[in-house]
Write a structure and sequence with these properties.
Oligomer: heterodimer
Helix content of chain B: 10-25%
Radius of gyration of chain B: 20 Å
Distance between the termini of chain A: 43 Å
Strand content of chain A: 25-35%
Number of domains of chain A: 4
Order of helices and strands of chain B: HHH
Number of helices of chain A: 12
Strand order of the largest sheet of chain A: 3-4-5-6-7-8-9-10
Shape of chain B: elongated
Structural class of chain B: mainly alpha
Helix content of chain A: 10-25%
Number of strands of chain B: 0
Structural class of chain A: alpha+beta
Strand content of chain B: under 5%
Number of helices of chain B: 3
């Protein structure tokens, strides 16, 4: 790349010096914040460098709070670069103690949930200067999932400069040293110390009430797998004998669009009283092992998060778990939308639904203009209802009410499909398959009604749900003779983009990799002729691999 | 533009492309780098960088300043070892300085031997 390069002689001693200086014992100052660490495992594992002060606070460690992933990253760096030797069991116990006692409060962790959930979302930060300083190398998620004292933020910057001497040139000190203005790194330290301080009301409140959550029991599962649609089912959670924060799980769920059923067994650990980290194995070899990242809400009745897999964690299901109380519970309905004047069979998914089939008095209520004519079948986990929609029924979403439960907006009545949208609007894939993994990108086509105002992209628009579409890719022309479309890969009928292989491609000009950017186009209905039907499209960037992976992968293994 | 005229070949190509986009740039108006006035219809906002957990540097590893790939150093293998030795992309390429001094041990020339380099989990 066209940047100037410098000789980096003498940097290793600097790094060693910084590491040693940072870890040395500090004199006790009673007015300094910091959390004493009395756990013998942590003291033995870390104490030879991070010596305790008179109040039992270990240097550096006691002045920082973060997620289990954040602590695991630190421990891995200590092993890789500072010669620490830990057994896996000791490392797990250290992560557990630190995440529980120097962790984040729920409100703090939720702000950065997308980082732990490994989402490839659009996540802009509100301070563009600080964002640019930090995201030159890593996501802001890594930053906002930390809380540190001002001194700790400053020492963290020193660590970056010691290990990565180019940091100054690339991000930290980009300004004119002679103009007297603070450098980017100074502004970042000031901002982060104020925005993400070590001591917060949220943490003092949460740490006062924190305890291992009692999650045993049956939970209703409601989820969405991009490109595959809604999933409904149940997760049964069982506490592991002898461990108050570990659980085993049995999950069964159904893909509403296809009826495909999946069973999983798993195991999980809950950090800081609310951070679920698990892993589950499918009964069906056609499914993948999934990592689970979820957050338990404070009422202990709901969990939300993402189950995921893939070379870059790019494939997943967004899930919500709600505790089942024993009576009927409605998860959702399929299809999610019906045209006015039409008759259809709607499958209501949930649990304990059989009693609803007994008489017309107990049938599900789908709201004004939607008549439930008959229940045509049930297993208790689903209920098929035959419905007719009045031709004059108002367009809009209907809540599905059954006994004392309801699923909000479960069925939408519409008169016409106005447009098709492709999500995500900007996707990314990475070439791979020869030496490095491929990163796939799943797209999804959704039908929309413009709402009562007839204008697209306004608040009253109605999401009519995922639709089957015909997928294609088109050139996104940014240069003369742009021909990315010939090399980047192909899109499957289900909307998943498969990138081409990694490595130089001698058939391309300059032996370019199979990278490029293209439009991904969905046409609906799928059998529409050329120029017919509705089209939606998204931008897809097909790019190069990562050659190292910083991301922690094993905090869920108890 | 009425009072301007192309005086070199590149400018002439710009004029020709704007007037008649290449046939593979369907639908018309998608010559984004050369667009005039407002954005073409249905064009999504440019990708926010970094995309969630992905990593980037500007001009970036994944994307160039325009959010595309046309401005990237290509093929990536041509620059890989310089990045490694110079510690230039510490979040994308293993650095020789601290983490992986031997990363290129089995690979004399990345453009030919790139299959011999390893994915690193620091």
């Amino acid at each position: 790349m066209p940047q100037p390069r410098l000789k980096l002689l003498g940097c290793v001693p600097l790094a060693a010096l910084l590491a040693a200086a940072g870890a040395a014992a500090q004199p006790a100052e009673t007015n300094r914040p910091g959390i004493p660490i009395d756990d013998e495992t942590v003291r033995q594992a870390c104490g030879s460098c991070h010596q305790p002060d008179d109040e039992g606070r270990l240097s550096r460690i006691s002045f920082r709070r973060t997620t289990p992933e954040g602590w695991q990253q630190t421990i891995r760096r200590m092993v890789t670069l500072n010669g620490v030797t830990l057994t896996p069991e000791t490392a797990r116990n250290v992560v557990r103690h630190l995440a529980n006692n120097l962790g984040l409060a729920p409100a703090e962790a939720l702000d950065a949930a997308w980082e732990a959930e490994r989402r490839s979302d659009d996540q802009p930060y509100d301070d563009a200067d600080v964002e640019e300083t930090c995201t030159q190398c890593h996501s802001m998620g890594r930053v906002i999932s930390q809380r540190r004292t001002g001194e700790e933020w400053s020492l963290l910057m020193a660590m970056h400069r010691g290990y990565y001497p180019f940091t100054d040139f690339q991000a930290f000190r980009r300004g004119d040293p002679g103009d007297g203005k603070p450098q980017a790194v100074d502004r970042a330290v000031a901002h982060l110390s104020e925005r993400f301080p070590f001591e917060t009301a949220a943490w003092s409140a949460w740490s006062a009430t924190m305890r291992p959550p009692r999650l045993g029991g049956a939970w209703l599962l409601r989820g969405h797998a991009p490109g595959r649609g809604a999933v409904y089912g149940q997760v049964t959670i069982t506490p592991l004998a002898g461990a108050e924060d570990e659980f085993t799980t049995e999950a069964t769920y159904t893909y509403a669009r296809t009826g495909r059923q999946v069973e999983r067994t798993g195991r999980a650990i809950v950090y800081t009283g609310f951070q679920w980290r698990g892993r589950s194995i499918p009964g069906d070899p056609g499914e993948d092992e999934l990592r689970e990242v979820m957050f338990v809400e404070r009422d202990r009745r709901t969990m939300r998060g993402r189950w995921f897999t893939g070379g870059y964690d790019e494939t997943g299901i967004d899930v919500t778990l709600e505790r089942l109380a024993g009576g009927p519970a409605v998860a959702g309905a399929h299809p999610p939308s019906i045209q006015a004047g039409a008759a259809a069979t709607v499958r209501v998914h949930g649990r304990n639904l059989a009693a609803a089939a007994e008489s017309a008095d107990t049938f599900p209520d789908l709201g004004p203009g939607v008549s439930v004519l008959a229940v045509t079948g049930t297993t208790g986990d689903w209920l098929d209802v035959h419905v007719r929609v009045d031709p004059d029924a108002a367009t809009g979403a209907r809540d599905l009410v059954l006994d004392q439960t309801a699923a909000t907006g479960a069925l939408t009545v519409y008169d016409d499909v106005d447009r098709i949208e492709v999500t995500p609007r900007a996707g990314m894939a990475r070439v791979g398959g020869v030496r490095f993994p491929k990163q796939f990108q799943q797209f999804e086509a959704r039908a929309w009604h413009n709402g009562p105002d007839g204008e697209p992209a306004t608040e009253d628009d109605l999401d009519l749900g995922m639709v089957d579409a015909r997928w294609s890719i088109e050139e996104y022309a940014v240069t003369f003779g742009d021909d990315d479309i010939r090399y980047v890969g192909a899109i499957e009928p289900g909307g998943r983009f498969i990138p081409a292989v990694d490595g130089p491609n001698v058939e391309r000009s300059g032996s370019r990799n199979n990278v490029g950017d293209v439009w991904v186009v969905a046409t609906w209905p799928p059998d529409a002729g050329d120029g017919g039907g509705l089209r939606g499209r998204a931008h897809l960037l097909v790019t190069v691999p990562l050659y190292l992976r910083w991301d922690p992968t094993a905090v869920e293994q108890p | 533009m009425r009072h301007l005229r192309a005086i070199n070949q590149k400018a002439a190509r710009v004029e020709r492309t704007v007037a008649a986009p290449p046939p593979d740039a369907a639908p018309a108006g998608d010559v984004v780098a050369l667009q005039q006035g407002s954005a073409p219809p249905q064009q999504p906002e440019g990708p926010h960088i970094p995309l969630g957990c992905s990593l980037v540097f500007q001009p970036g590893w994944e994307a160039d300043r325009n959010g595309g790939t046309a401005g990237l150093c290509q093929p990536v293998e041509r620059d890989l070892f310089d990045c490694h030795r110079g510690c230039f992309w510490p979040a994308h390429v293993p650095d020789q300085l601290n983490h992986t001094p031997d990363w290129t041990g089995k690979c004399a020339a990345a453009q030919k031997d790139w299959r011999n380099i390893d994915l690193i989990f620091p």
